[in-house]
Recover the amino acids of this structure.
């Protein structure tokens, strides 16, 4: 799956930010701020953001940790990273960007206070291995933060599924030229474990002393937080 996902993101990378802003109605900004808050990152913290894409969450963390902190943004798709350095420079923020596989990070053990991944863990071949690898590079007592889609229920869930299956592929296809990518993204989000089921994946990783799920917008997304053993 990794090769197919990499190729898909490569094709939509130039228009990804525009599509994300339009399709989420800007709510992704609030979700990122929530993830940063729940991470308990502070001035001087060292943060790793996996599957950073064009760098939005990495930049949000850099604003939090300040000039004395360090933020590294990684992604396995070089094309997604292409615009990230310029975006950071325009914002006056110093962030390191590297091409890395979140399941096989070439980074030292215990070298970060926080590791995060937003809307990326459902695209890796082995989510449990990814959770283990992120925990490996975080010091004991540090936090791993996962922002990922859920499956809302009730009347809102019906509306959300209609939007995901019908509107997203049409609008996303028009904006990026790749309708299939915006069929894949909601399809994988609908199938990926959410809530308690994702917490069971964190348990399987065997790397966390505590873990919690924080629902956003009626369960449209979750912020999962794990404390590293």
């Amino acid at each position: 799956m990794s090769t197919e996902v990499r190729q898909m993101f490569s094709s939509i990378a130039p228009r990804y930010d525009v599509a994300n802003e339009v399709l989420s109605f800007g709510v992704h900004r609030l979700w990122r701020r929530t993830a940063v808050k729940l991470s308990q990152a502070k001035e001087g913290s060292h943060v790793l953001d996996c599957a950073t894409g064009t760098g939005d969450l990495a930049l949000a963390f850099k604003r939090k940790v300040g000039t004395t902190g360090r933020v590294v943004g990684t992604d396995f798709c070089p094309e997604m990273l292409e615009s990230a350095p310029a975006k950071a420079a325009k914002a006056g923020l110093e962030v390191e960007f590297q091409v890395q596989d979140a399941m096989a990070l070439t980074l030292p053990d215990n070298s970060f206070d926080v590791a995060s991944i937003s809307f990326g863990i459902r695209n890796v071949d082995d989510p449990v291995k990814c959770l283990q690898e992120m925990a490996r590079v975080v010091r004991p007592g540090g936090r791993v933060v996962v922002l990922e889609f859920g499956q809302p229920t009730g009347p809102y869930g019906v509306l959300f599924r209609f939007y995901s299956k019908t509107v997203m592929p049409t609008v996303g296809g028009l904006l990026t030229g790749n309708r299939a990518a915006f069929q894949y993204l909601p399809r994988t989000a609908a199938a990926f474990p959410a809530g308690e089921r994702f917490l069971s994946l964190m348990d399987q990783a065997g790397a966390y002393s505590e873990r919690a799920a924080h629902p956003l917008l009626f369960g449209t997304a979750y912020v999962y937080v794990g404390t590293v053993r």
